[in-house]
């Protein structure tokens, strides 16, 4: 496929001092992640990126403030703010402040019973705010934990939930059958009934064994199932910068789609750029 005019990245991270569990944490290496990513953008026609906030540990506890600084400095930074499920939910004031700081949504990490319970207690006012401002709700989760979104989306079907990393299905050494793949991501496929839900095609290194098995053919049946149930317009390319650097190059995060002949050129173009560009273009600015 000829190179598309522009790309839009649905999932990257930016941490002050670099991510602490990847290439950027290697001894002797100091990385300005924003500068590094900006150079990759220039080389590969990336126009903007959804920055997924994460502040669950002491080393990254100030990530929301860091992303606010990045958003003020760089037009391409479109951040979503990490929500601590072990704390009180964000208030209306908190949400308005985030909006003033150019945040375009919220980031949830839902793993286990405690976080599912906390998610169920999020006030409907929070979801209504997100819907009114067309915010994006980026979610990292896996397996049956995805079911926690069913009652929320039943009440708020317009909520724009973005499933990260294909929903983190089981890692595969050999491609599963179509039926096996569908069973493995059944809880994610169950969200396809809600037309506002999208899926990020990212983190393939975490879905195949070994993780560097480019172009990750063992995970392709997952993509085929997601394309069938969600449709091409609800799938989003995401690089998962900078964690992906331990496993593959930046161009490989989108190059693998060229090998997926079942997608077609037009479909790849929408997945790599147009679908996310439309979503971000609809977010209401402060």
Question: What do these coordinates show?
Answer:
With 286 residues, this protein is α/β, with parallel strands linked by helices. The protein has one domain: TIM Barrel, CATH 3.20.20.140. It is 36% helix and 15% strand. It contains 11 helices and 8 strands. Strands 1-2-3-4-5-6-7-8 form an 8-stranded parallel β-sheet. The model has no long low-confidence stretch (mean pLDDT 96).
Outline the secondary-structure elements.
Layout: E1 7-12, H1 33-44, E2 46-52, H2 63-73, E3 77-82, H3 92-100, E4 105-110, H4 113-120, H5 124-132, E5 136-141, H6 149-155, E6 160-163, H7 178-184, H8 186-189, E7 198-201, H9 220-230, E8 235-237, H10 252-259, H11 265-282
Parallel strand pairs: 1-2, 2-3, 3-4, 4-5, 5-6, 6-7, 7-8
Tell me the fraction of residues in β-strands, as a range.
Answer: 5-15%
H and E string: EHEHEHEHHEHEHHEHEHH
DSSP summary, beta strand count? 8
In CATH, the topology is named TIM Barrel
CATH superfamily: Metal-dependent hydrolases
Q: What is the CATH architecture assignment?
A: Alpha-Beta Barrel
The number of domains is: 1
Q: By helix and strand content, what is the structural category? A: alpha/beta
Percent of residues in helices: 25-40%
Strand order of the largest sheet: 1-2-3-4-5-6-7-8
Q: End-to-end span in angstroms?
A: 38 Å
């Amino acid at each position: 496929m000829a190179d598309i005019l522009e790309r839009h990245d649905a999932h990257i991270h930016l941490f002050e001092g670099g991510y602490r569990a990847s290439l950027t944490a290697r001894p002797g290496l100091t990385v300005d992640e924003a500068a590094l990513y900006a150079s990759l953008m220039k080389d590969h026609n990336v126009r903007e990126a959804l920055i997924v906030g994460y502040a669950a540990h002491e080393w990254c506890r100030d990530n929301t403030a860091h992303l606010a600084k990045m958003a003020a400095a760089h037009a391409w930074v479109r951040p979503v703010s990490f929500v601590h499920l072990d704390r009180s939910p964000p208030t209306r004031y908190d949400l308005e402040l985030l909006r003033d700081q150019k945040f375009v949504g919220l980031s949830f990490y839902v793993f286990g019973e405690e976080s599912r319970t906390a998610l169920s207690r999020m006030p409907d006012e929070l979801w209504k705010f997100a819907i009114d401002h067309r915010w994006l709700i980026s979610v990292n989760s896996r397996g049956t934990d995805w079911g926690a979104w069913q009652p929320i989306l039943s009440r708020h079907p317009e909520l724009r939930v973005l499933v990260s990393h294909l929903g983190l299905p089981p890692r595969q050494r050999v491609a599963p059958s179509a039926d096996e793949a569908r069973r493995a991501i059944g809880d994610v496929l169950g969200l396809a009934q809600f037309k506002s839900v999208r899926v990020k095609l990212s983190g393939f290194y975490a879905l195949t064994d070994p993780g560097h098995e480019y172009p990750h053919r063992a995970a392709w049946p997952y993509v085929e199932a997601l394309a069938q149930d969600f449709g091409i317009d609800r799938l989003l390319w995401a690089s998962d910068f900078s964690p992906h650097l331990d496993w593959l190059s930046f161009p490989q995060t989108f190059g693998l789609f060229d090998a997926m002949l079942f997608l077609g050129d037009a479909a790849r173009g929408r997945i790599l750029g147009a679908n996310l560009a439309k979503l971000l273009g609809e977010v209401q600015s402060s």
